[in-house]
Design goal:
Keywords: Isomerase, Membrane, Rotamase, Signal, Transmembrane, Transmembrane helix
CATH architecture of the largest domain: Orthogonal Bundle
Distance between the termini: 38 Å
Low-confidence stretches: 1-41
CATH topology of the largest domain: Triger factor/SurA peptide-binding fold
Strand order of the largest sheet: 4-3-6-5
Number of domains: 2
Helix content: 40-55%
Structural class: alpha+beta
Pfam families: Rotamase_2
EC number: 5.2.1.8
Radius of gyration: 26 Å
Number of strands: 6
Shape: flat
GO molecular function: isomerase activity
Number of helices: 11
Catalytic activity: [protein]-peptidylproline (omega=180) = [protein]-peptidylproline (omega=0)
CATH class of the largest domain: Mainly Alpha
Amino acid sequence: MTRQEKGLWATVIVLTAGVIFMGSWMLFSGGGSIEGIKQFKGTSPAVASVQDKAITEDEWVGELKKRYGRDVLMTMLNRRAVALEASGRGLDISEAELEAEFERMSRSYGSKERFVAEMESQLGIPEEELRHETVYRLLLEKIATADIEIDQHQIDEYLKLHPDQYRPKKQVDISVIEVATLDEAEQVLDRLEHGENFADLAQEVSIDEYTRDYGGRIGLVEEDDPFQSQALLETATLLEAGDIAGPIRLEDTYGIVYVHDVIEPPTLSEESIREAVRKQLALQQAVSLSELEQQLREKYEAKIFAGVLP
């Protein structure tokens, strides 16, 4: 995942927290009765209790407002200001644009399904919320670059200077068992050939403290990942899913590699590459997206009233 994408997901996490808060607010401020909630004289309904001490709806919502209130309100103001600007400019995000962006974001994960699953399992962001946040970001980027012209010559020059940036790279999903000596590596291979489980062996004998507790699992890496042993990658990229190979001479140790999966990303079309470069160059000239949000809030006179937040 690129640095820019990591920044995006950090933003998404904050916004998702806001969505959770809003859901809670809507559920418990609507005035409807909820079975099992006790009404106390002179207070709001109780939503929970510890022994005989109730936690009231007002206490709960007040705590949520203290923790997330400003973020939620700023998110709502941003969304409305951006929507007004997009409407005024006649801008929108098509389903095709959204799917193309999902394809781009999924590239380093091997598939859209794997990407969506990782976002939900690692960050707790379901696909529907992921789509909403992506549409919003794309719309903000479209507004930011609407008045910036990038000519074909600029795109040609960029591609000449960065010929490999959009070349799809093979990825391998691997696990490794690292041991100190060649003799130990041969013993590991012999045990694997006799049917022992790779992950169990890694936990038992691997000296790699970063992967040992995870059964040797490194995960999905690109063929030229600078943080992995080149000897390890050169071997792994020649294998097929399910293959085990070794011993591989690392720096001062030896490794046995197991390939879970091999992913060959599809080649991008020339049109897609040029559009990606155009957008990248335009964004480099544009104001930052957070600055644009601020400008739009000011343009549409967004404000938070005094006394609303604790």
